[in-house]
Amino acid sequence: MGSGKQRTDIMEQLENYWQASHHTDTHTRTPDVLSAVDRVSIIAYRKKKKESQRRFWARFGVTQSRGSRFESGAEIPAPVSILLGLYFTKTISDGDLGRAERILHDSGTRELVSLAQ
User: Fold this and answer.
1) Tens digit of pLDDT for each residue in 56-110?
2) How large a percentage of the chain has pLDDT more than 70?
3) Distance in angstroms (rounded) separating the CA atoms of residues 79 and 60
4) Domain chopping of the chain, boundaries
5) Contact, 56 vs 46, CB < 8 A?
6) Contact between residue 17 and residue 37 where contact means Cβ atoms under 8 Å apart
7) Does the N terminus or the C terminus of the chain have fewer Cβ atoms within 10 A?
């Protein structure tokens, strides 16, 4: 199997994994298997897009070093996992993530959030 075909297969596996019907049935598979599939698929996706770890993981609010640990098998926290799922199913885009980050770092937004607490 050629490397292009392998990448396509991995991308399809990743997108299929994040489909809601498949994702809700995770209790029938071991966490180690899920982590290995995610890790391999994420790395393949990042490399296919020719992105550095820093650039890829930054869109999810993750540092390069933490992203490297995720790619090496560390558990991905639920909020990051949710963002990955939304991103890979094209529910959210780079633009959506960028807008959310700008809103979070906007001083007016910070004031509103602190007033609400």
Assistant:
1) 999 999 999 999 999 999 999 999 999 998 998 899 999 999 998 888 788 776 6
2) 61
3) 9
4) 3-92
5) yes
6) yes
7) C
Coil/strand/helix, residue 51: coil
Q: What is the pLDDT of residues 14-38, one digit of tens each?
A: 666 555 444 444 444 344 444 444 7
Q: If we measure between CA atoms, which residue out of 36, 37, 71, 74 comes closest to residue 52?
A: 71
Structure tokens at 4: 């292009």
Residue 16 to residue 12: CA distance in whole angstroms: 6
- Residue type (1 letter), 101: E
Q: Average model confidence (pLDDT) for the chain?
A: 76
68 vs 19, 72, 74, 77, CA distance in Å? 25, 6, 9, 14
pLDDT band (50, 70, 90) for residue 116 = low
CA dist list (Å): 53 to 2, 24, 105, 110: 25, 28, 22, 28
